[in-house]
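hey so u asked for the seq, here:
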Amino acid sequence: MKDQAKLFIWEGGAVFWGRLADTALHKHHAVQVCVGVDGPFKLMLDGQWMQTRYAAIPANYPHQLDGRQNLIALVLLDTASSIGMGLDAVLTCDDLRQLSQGLHLPDSIENARDMAIGFARFVDGHFQTDNCDSHKTIADNGPLDGRIEKALVQLERIGDEQVLASDLAKTVGLSQSRFLHLFSQNVGLPFRRYVLWRRIITAMEEVRAGGDLTSAAHAGGFADSAHFSRTFRETFGLSPSKLFKNSQFIQVIT
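ran it, structure tokens below
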């Protein structure tokens, strides 16, 4: 496992585990939970370094992480997703220790999603009084509205082509405003965020199939590799080129 790393991505979230030596000071759109699996890591916040084994970091909060070559697990969740946390302060305390005891690194997309949901519910409950039952994945929501299900099928058929919410709304017989409301309610992500995640996933599937970043960018409908890399960094705080260069055994499972 020394050189192994895995990345699991689904609509609205991701789990990465591997060895990260250092990342530059950055911020990104996803809420991030960090767990040092076999030892502590260094974390810079507000210009000061600290050492910890557990941390939850709000979206768009500048930070720098040095894994010190220890195995680290990162849970990343879009704040607009149904399991995205309303985290408004950095959490680095022993409360996460209990949740992390006996942590099993995921080896499937199902296990990765379960892991993410568990951390999201814990951190959200630590700061808020909202009932955890409000945090659901698509599978937890019960049957999809038939019109939204039809829209999702249409999105899969369209692939990386430009798609407008207004066009899909007309296709399924809804006003645009009603369509956007039902889409977010049923899917767990706003329409535009869902489309972006699908584009990222499509690009990562191309990488998994052996493509380079340029072909991945085109597969996902990005203008070029720089556009894809910038979007990836803004979402996850990780550089795709460094990620794959430093982890030759990485697996992308969607």
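Residues 127-141 have pLDDT under 50 and may be disordered. Residues 6-135+242-253 form a domain with the Jelly Rolls fold (CATH 2.60.120.10).
lmk if thats what u needed
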